[in-house]
Amino acid sequence: MSDSPAAVLEVRGLVKQFPGVRALDGVDLDVRPGEVHCLLGPNGAGKSTLIKCVSGAVEPTEGEILLGGEPLPTGDPAASLGLGVATIYQELDLVEDLTVAQSVFLAHEPRRGPFLDLQRMSRDTAALLARLGHEGISPRSRVSRLRPAAQQVVSIARALSHDVRLLIMDEPSAILDEGEIETLFGVVRRLTADGVGVIYITHRLDEIRRIGDRVTVLADGRTAGTGLPASTPTDRLVELMVGRIVERLYPERPRGAGDVVLEVRGLRRLPEVRGVSLEVRAGEVVGLGGLVGSGRTELLRLIYGMETPDEGEVWVGGEKLPPNRPDKAIAAGLGLAPEDRKSQGLLLDWSQTKNVSLADLGRFQRGLLNVRAERAAAREHLRSLRTVPDDAERIVRQLSGGNQQKVVLARWLLRSCRVLLLDEPTRGVDVATKAELYRVITDLARDGLAVLVVSSELEELVGVCSRVLVMREGELVFEVDGAQASERELLRHAVAPTDSADFVEEVR
To answer: Which of 121, 396, 421, 478 is the most buried (most CB within 10 A)?
Structure first.
């Protein structure tokens, strides 16, 4: 670690002890002005605890944090923010009913006497947005009406309203599509050109080469490697994260030679879905790519019966499903793992057992609930997916993101589903957990399930899927065999034809 006084942030021997858990065990890190320092690590490595210590939300047990060579007050978020340390969390802390200007200056509004100086708020917000290259965002717009990428920009503008010296960004690209990610990178480059130091937390290793300067890897609360160049080989970064060599990130892709299990015929719900037809066979994983807003999630909701189509049909195993009847879809063998597993797929304060049995509770009832049979069945499927910890009564909120996803999958295994709809199944999980989920998905396909998976990570679609379909503006525009697919080709078809060539060249 460098002791250079030029470092905007220096973390030395940081330790954080919670009751029964040593979350940080001597972490070292330094960030230079004008650099993007990427922070990697598996879930539970200590990344969140580290940034909470730096931002003042958590007080460390031992060690020191220096900002510009001076000790940073600990356990005082207001003091950290006042000294120029701003944090943008994955779940943005914006109030959707406020305007952009109100959000930017929330809790530190400029005043003219006893009144808010609305003109100055609007003027200063416009200046901040112009600094970020986003003059098109109106200070008077409601936050709720902005796309996720624009909301990210507003959150950054809010940080800059405090004269930020160090900006911490926690998984900022998780909800963005390729075009929006490149827009975000443009904003980050503008900040670093002004001398702002950036800590960029990501699970997407390809982003390191595109935006990072140096890398620090955490594992088990310790610094596994720090100050590494962004060009460090992926295999080496993965090895540092998991403490061993991951032989293969993607398993051999399933071929899917079985019968057609899911058939979608001319499904339409304007304006999101415009006449989509597709088939998924038993034993194959079909990927569904496209930009955010292309209609991928809306299509899954229509297939599952959560929305009523304007026209079109869904068939499962030769049986036509009635529209807007998820119960009939489940009975026919459909299972859905939604995009936001925490709010849409799980009851976080229930046990693993209760979450798994939720879709088929009747099988355990003969007047009274047979708790022993319920627990045994849930444990069987949780163990088949290698869910950690091996405790069916553990509260789901206490599990990592990857293991929460396995609980959702175990639910549909218990139900003996025939078609599995997966919406962003690996969002927010580390590389080692991704490899485990890829194994689970391909194993399920080899056992005869038909799998339709939506993913914003093009590399994931190329690595896992038997076939890949691409949606654009509510329509299927491209299909390719998974073995022949490439990220460049998928991206070219995902963007509008008029600007696709320039876009691909720009982001690649």
So the answer is: 421
